[in-house]
DNA sequence: TTGTAGGCGTTATCAC
DNA sequence: GTGATAACGCCTACAA
């Protein structure tokens, strides 16, 4: 008494079909595809021919289920609209693709809760490892990771607690660009911050430290808004800043979007940049070199971060390098006309 | 004689473990999670408690394998660095997430061969449907799709062959912005094109049609470069164009990046925009409203395209709406200072 | 409303 | 180098 045949997924061709067509057993097909050197050339050819003839596409689900390895890596980033993370993704992609791994992209929208939900959801795919943005995550998030024993690499920043991380010191970068403004003779240097994520707050900390060092920190020169940054917001914040503190003589914006909006507003208002007001951004996005005047900013090695983080994670997954590493890729000041 | 236990994936907690903890059978756990209304509240609570207590995360692989449905949708786009596609992705994401579907993102880098490889690779995940960018794909690509009987929706453009598509007429958009330049009194209107993908070529066709209509098409005013567009390229192309045809009085750039680079170069060279040379872009990216002078461009409903395309695909997957649709979401001219 | 039996497509393990 | 067998974790079909 046979039952109704079930619906088949994909084109319906299975490894057994290929095996039958090639006159071998299923396991030989599996080996011919995954460990070719373990199969004699003659059979290997037969198998490959059958694969092509039938249009066979292996089922990742079955493979994952049987082997307990998904050859998949989860990447969690705060935003897909930010070039910074796209460049990082591009770097990751090249490394993973070469190693035969695929990438699951999760966009947390800068929200720790959403990040946790994403992790939960994507854990269903049993990723072999995770690439994370930033060091701070919701407490249950870290628990989940541990519970599942998932190798993780933290990107964009540097930890000192033994976690594997690839990035640069956000704080030092913020301090460095602030010092540059000080060297230009500015003394009442303001800070425009949006989004207020972990990294922005560290840049702010660096800014404060540099100013304190020079004896000219002034809390009244900081303007912070938790909303996502945009050029419009940069323009608005510039208005607010100058209205509140007309004596302000420089602005460090937490990212280039803000800076470019502020710069455009300066143009409209006829404010002399950098003489009357110097402006600096962060990240060195494409428009920074093209706006008027060109924007002084901090170039960040985000593509390289993606590449190195992916390599480190693959090493952890393969068990090659059990020990965690801490990779500082640095940053570079791009000094242009706006300062 | 029992064998060695195999390595378990995930945290090692399976549906059976949950069932045992809750004192029910595995299938009841499955139903409590997937069709809650089919399980009595009492048992449902017990199950959910056990799920939480054990930190159970279902295995998508097992589910996919057993049900022949992956609840996964493949999205193929030409680039991750282009805001246009990111906005589309964002739209898709909201719809899919709400429906409990996950999205696999494939970046073809504007390359038909890579796109085919991506499809092959991602078919291993047995997606339930595909969202595609543009109408033209490699021939084996369409074969593969058919062979696997995959529901597909084509985004960004409009087909007339019964395929399900959501977008707007690239050609009409190109014609419309060209007509606007004609209305401004321009007669020697040039075209700057990069990337030269399907959509750029259609915008070019629209540009030609509009000029031919007005009796002033001039093939010597077209500058085309298959390399990816950038602001730098826009600046370089402006130089080349004016060197070759100093009589050129307007430029339609195939995208905003090019236009903004050209605009910036005009500023540097002291070329009066729009009096001496009008400039128009395409897509209405954020900087278009902020550059100097602000950029006339074509606003495209890309987020909405993502939303509607995802909805259409889900309908096809669920079998609600077997018939294909052709959804024209239109475009809008954004007339600003550069024309 | 709940449970039992069996199979989805692949790979690990152990024999030959 | 090749093959038989038994999992992997879940869901469909059917039965109670």
The gist of it:
Two copies of one chain form a homodimer. Helices cover 45% and strands 15% of the residues of chain A.
Structural overview:
- Two copies of one chain form a homodimer.
- In chain A, 45% of the residues lie in helices and 15% in strands.
- The first copy, chain A, is built from twelve helices and twelve strands.
- Chain A has helices at residues 15-22, 26-34, 41-54, 60-67, 83-98, 112-123, 139-147, 170-183, 198-213, 231-244, 256-269, 302-318, and strands at residues 72-77, 102-107, 129-133, 152-156, 165-167, 189-194, 222-225, 250-253, 278-280, 297-299, 326-328, 332-334.
- In chain A, strands 2-1-3-4-5-11 form a six-stranded parallel β-sheet, with helices on both faces. In chain A, strands 7-6-8-9 form a four-stranded parallel β-sheet, sandwiched between helices. In chain A, strands 10-12 form a two-stranded antiparallel sheet.
- At the A-B interface, helix 4, helix 5, strand 2, helix 6 and helix 11 of A face helix 4, helix 5, strand 2, helix 6 and helix 11 of B.
- Chain B binds a DNA duplex (16 and 16 nucleotides) through helix 2 and helix 4.
- Chains A, B: InterPro entries: HTH_LacI, LacI/GalR-like_sensor, Lambda_DNA-bd_dom_sf, Peripla_BP_I.
- Chains A, B: This is Transcriptional regulator.
- Chains A, B: It comes from Chromobacterium sinusclupearum.
């Amino acid at each position: 008494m046979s039952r109704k045949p079930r619906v088949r997924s994909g084109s319906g061709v299975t490894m057994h079909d290929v095996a039958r067509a090639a006159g071998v057993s299923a396991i030989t097909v599996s080996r011919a595809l995954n460990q070719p050197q373990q199969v004699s050339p003659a059979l290997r050819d037969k198998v490959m021919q059958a694969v092509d003839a039938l249009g066979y596409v292996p089922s990742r689900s079955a493979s994952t289920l049987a082997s307990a390895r998904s050859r998949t890596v989860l990447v969690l980033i705060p935003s897909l609209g930010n070039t910074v993370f796209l460049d990082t993704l591009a770097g990751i992609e090249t490394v993973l693709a070469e190693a035969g791994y695929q990438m699951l992209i999760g966009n947390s929208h800068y929200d720790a809760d959403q990040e946790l939900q994403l992790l939960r959801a994507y854990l269903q795919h049993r990723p072999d490892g995770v690439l994370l943005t930033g060091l701070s995550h919701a407490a249950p998030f870290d628990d989940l990771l541990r519970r599942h024993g998932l190798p993780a690499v933290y990107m964009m920043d540097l930890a000192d607690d033994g976690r594997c991380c690839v990035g640069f010191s956000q704080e030092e970068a913020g301090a460095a660009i602030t010092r540059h403004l000080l060297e230009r003779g500015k003394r009442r240097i303001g800070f425009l911050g949006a989004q207020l994520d972990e990294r922005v707050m560290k840049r702010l900390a660096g800014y404060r430290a540099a100013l304190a060092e020079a004896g000219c920190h002034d809390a009244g020169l900081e303007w912070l808004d938790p909303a996502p940054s945009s050029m419009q917001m940069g323009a608005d914040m510039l208005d607010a800043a100058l209205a509140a503190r007309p004596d302000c003589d420089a602005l460090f914006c937490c990212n280039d979007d803000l800076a470019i909006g502020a710069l455009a507003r300066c143009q409209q208002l006829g404010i002399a940049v950098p003489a009357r007001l110097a402006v600096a951004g962060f990240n060195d996005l494409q428009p920074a070199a093209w706006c008027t005047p060109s924007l002084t900013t901090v170039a960040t090695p985000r593509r390289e971060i993606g590449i190195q983080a992916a390599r480190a994670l693959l090493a952890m997954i393969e068990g090659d390098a059990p020990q965690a590493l801490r990779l500082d890729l640095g940053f570079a000041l791009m000094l242009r006309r706006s300062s």
